[in-house]
């Protein structure tokens, strides 16, 4: 079967505004992995993704416990009470988490939650023992309930933020994001209170933050999905409602955050991705924010932006998640992030970030199919190399046209499930460099021939030759530790030598030495072939 060639045109003179490094946000359910060996190694890689600042969001930063991590669990023990019911504050574990971030060039997107055991209205049972395959609702225990005393809740938040200012400095903490709870909109999930009780929880927490640091960046609410009427009620409250904590009008809102998830399935024994579902969530969330004139310039962070809804649901139990170890996750990430830029342009909103809820799962079998950036032993997965590629895109975003691109509205309606893949590009121009990110994506993980691509770049601001091309790839054969792991027999616990071999296979390295390309009338032509489910970065540089 032949694949029709694709023509991609990049006009380096057609600026579309600054390239927004929305990729630089990450997060995880399990906060305590951050200071374990593989977690520290991965944080250091995240901190080096590019010139833009990276941020990390984690659940359970206020949960009671000894700091031992487990799937969908974490704790810091920052608040307990003595025998007389007096507060006892301990920042040791929370500091260890934030220290790990900052030492590796990553800043906190600080989630204020969940409820300490001594403060919960329904404290027992408290710590769960969930594993993949168990009922998901088992995780929602005593930490998901409202506080017994909202003043004590506010005081805890105040003391935590004041401690951070004292430890890290005012100018540092001013750069962080502070956001209350997670996905409070579904009934009987992360929040076991009413919507009004959540707004009260939010108001008291934000008041505590601002009392400690009046210039702190605060926002939310990080809804499950775009939030619908629940989100609108929250925004109305923040803009015009009576503040539960102060009695004044409104609650500070420096950014708005919601979540967007895909919905993979298994069709005829193979994974089918749900890109349409994720992009529809994004578009609805943007539309809600854009409907408020007061918020048209307010930054938006998609606080969880992922192909599915459960990072800890491994592919060994949930076969629809088998995409995670492979180049399919990489190509999906490239195509989905590019379309989020397009949706923000269309809705006229200020998109600041799209947070990937992927980190690592310490001590689990290698390539167990968790949604992660690296597998056990610190081996980067193919998707992480796409974030390394994103880090090379800086400066001004420039126009791209592709004969192989699937229309945005078609993708939102039907996904990428027809006879043609989605083959397109994203490009950014900076001083002496044009970075072009290309992908060949399809929702269905089925074999297909390579796609021939004819890339034309016009109006390149290079005055004369030479123009050099450096090319990077992520596909089944390049930047792909999973392929190497399968070739060595798929060991669940690789030896030290095998881990070294896997790390080498997963490295982000050029295909070869930079080569010169012909420049004529500020135009270059490049011919290549893109395998299905591949991502390619082409860096054009000149003096």
UniProtKB/TrEMBL annotation:
InterPro entries: GH (IPR017853), GH39_cat (IPR049166), Glyco_hydro_39 (IPR000514), Glycosyl_Hydrolase_39 (IPR051923). SUPFAM superfamilies: (Trans)glycosidases (SSF51445), Glycosyl hydrolase domain (SSF51011). This is Beta-xylosidase. The gene is xynB2_3. Belongs to the glycosyl hydrolase 39 family. Pfam families: Glyco_hydro_39. PANTHER family: ALPHA-L-IDURONIDASE. Keywords: Glycosidase, Hydrolase. It comes from Phytohabitans aurantiacus. It comes from the Bacteria. Residues 78-505 form the Glycosyl hydrolases family 39 N-terminal catalytic domain.
